[in-house]
Predict the 3D structure of the following.
Amino acid sequence: MERTVHDDIAYVLLEHERIQDRVRQLSDQISQDYADTDDLLLVGVLKGSVMLMVDMARSLQQDVALDFIAISSYGQATKTSGVVRLLKDLDTDIGGRHVLIVEDIVDSGLTLAYLRESFQRRNPASLRICALLNKPSRRQADVTIDYSGFDIPNEFVVGYGLDYAERYRNLPYIGVLRPEVYTQGND
Ligand code: IMP
Ligand code: MG
């Protein structure tokens, strides 16, 4: 058999079906909570949130606008550098609009703390946060996640948008990488 991308995965933490079910639940909740507004803007944090953005947007029961920002705090390491850089800003003005930030994972919380502050200064009508994964044990900044998919242990995970050095984003599930894949040359 030929090697595939799956061979680098030590084990699967969240199967595709389980992710899909949870995303549907979150979308139902969001559809209910925003039922009275026709002006919901989903802001995806590139690139990790792309799978979640697409699946969530398709499950929502109302019309939503989509925008994306890109941020960097990692480089090629598996631990945050603590320095958040904005690589691409919003295309749209969020003043007076209902904004829901869609993020793949909250780890230290530094990225979202930075984003929340940056967005709040632009005076949106409301600002909430949705994150598929939460690693509570690693928190350095205090962030409230309004819609949280799964709490996970302190393991470096890849798949369903999440990468290691830009790889593994296309895995349909979320898995833990074999340590030998990233111990060489990092940290
Ligand atoms: P924070 O600023 O430390 O909360 O980091 C959040 C960002 O770090 C996420 O948007 C991810 O891009 C990345 N990240 C954190 N933990 C993981 C992980 O386990 N796998 C892949 N990326 C991660
Ligand atoms: Mg990210």
